[in-house]
Amino acid sequence: MDCSKCEEAGLLFTSGELDKAQADELQKHLAACPPCKEEFSQYSLEKKKFYTLLCEDTSPDLDDKIISLCCRPAVPTTMGIFSVAWIKRAALSALIFALGLSAGGYFTFAYFQARTSGTYASQLKTPAASQPAASVAVTAAQKSPDTARHQSPTLLRQDKRVSPGVPSQGIITVDLKKE
Amino acid sequence: MDSLLEDHVLFDQWMKGDTAGFSALYERYKNRVFGFLVRMTGDREIAEDLLQDTFLAAMRNAEQFDRERNFLSWIFGIAHKRTIDYFRHVKVEYEHILDTDRSLGKGPDIPDLGLANKQLNAVINEAVRTLEPMQREVFLLRELGDVPFKDIAQIMNCPINTALGRMRLALKNIRKELKKRGIHGLQ
Questions:
Q1: A44-65: per-residue pLDDT in tens?
Q2: Which residues of chain B have a CB within 8 Å of the CB of A16?
Q3: Contact B15 A56 (CB under 8 A)
Q4: A153: CB partners within 8 A, 6+ apart
Q5: Residue A107: what pLDDT?
Q6: Residue B19 and which of A56, A76, A166, B104 are 20 to 30 A apart at CA?
Q7: What's the pLDDT band for A178 if we cut at 50, 70, 90?
Q8: Distance (Å, whole) CA B104 – CA B100
């Protein structure tokens, strides 16, 4: 160890941060180097003095105030084996998950509802609202297939998408096949 | 090591609502933390507020206390953060605080020690005040808080060698200031 490293090693030694091998090396150097030894001894003396001189007394009023503020009933930091912080984080995660699930469920439901009832919704907006969609399409196709396709292409296309499980709209599929 | 264990026991007592636990910890360390805050801010009243803030913050953030660490290092870390927050809040140019009249004009009160100690205290205070802010922080954390250098590096967000370098410079500058005032080494 050279003298330049000795000073820092001395600081680390006094703070208890040197391992045994490094501490031995420092001791060896101090034994062989009087200037470093003197510097180390000086710091050891100064350290005690610094501590005494740098501490400051607090006023009794301040002490009472702080003690009364900090000695309120303590907030528990653990509940069983779980810490309160962990429980808070878990609760927040569960809440976010539940919100996500609800939103997902809602949009899925809305999507399927729109798919199954879209035909009727568009039909209700047409002038022949009182008739079922199937009969409108059939009537139009019987009168003039080309006109019917031309006049209500949306309706026909929509009906084509209807799932086969919906009984009242199966007729439309039959009409299209005929054409 | 016993002191470390004892601090943890007192801390647990405090967290369970036992006032004796807090009182013992407070009595043990209040003068060190207060000394640190007085010298960091240069104002006793502000230091009193920050001391209160420090212990309240410790109570609020008790769950963040790492049992592997020293209680004193932890509390000094909080005190350091409170001081930095204070300077940010009042928009004081922290790097230039030494140059301001407020900092230099109103020094900490000198405790009622013997005359020689009183003079020495005044000289030390003056020497500490003339340090660069970063050097002063490291010096006070180490000498008052007995904070290990690895923790100082963590608190100040710098490498350990930087903290060591600042400490070396702080000691050198303090010795120089003491020599200027005719004090050759503290006995």
A1: 888 888 888 888 888 899 888 8
A2: 148
A3: no
A4: none
A5: 92
A6: A56
A7: very low
A8: 6
Q: What is the phi/psi pair of residue A36, to 5°?
A: -65, -35
The number of residues in chain A equals: 179
Q: pLDDT tens-digit profile of A66-108? A: 888 877 655 555 666 677 778 888 999 999 999 999 999 999 9
Give the predicted TM-score (pTM) of the model.
0.63
Give the Cα separation of A30 and A39 in Å (integer): 10
When CB atoms are compared, the residue of A16, A66, A84 closest to B55 is: A66
Give the C-alpha distances (Å, rounded to integers) separating A58 from A90, A96, B2, B37. Answer: 42, 48, 26, 11
Respond yes or no on whether ipTM tops 0.85. Answer: no
Name the DSSP class of B165: H
Residues in chain B: 187
* A55 with B35: Cβ contact below 8 A: yes
> What are the φ and ψ backbone dihedral angles of A75, each rounded to 5 degrees?
-80, 130
> Tokens in use for A77?
């930091």
| Interface residue of B31, B49, B125, B135 to substitute, partner A, most A CBs within 10 Å | B31
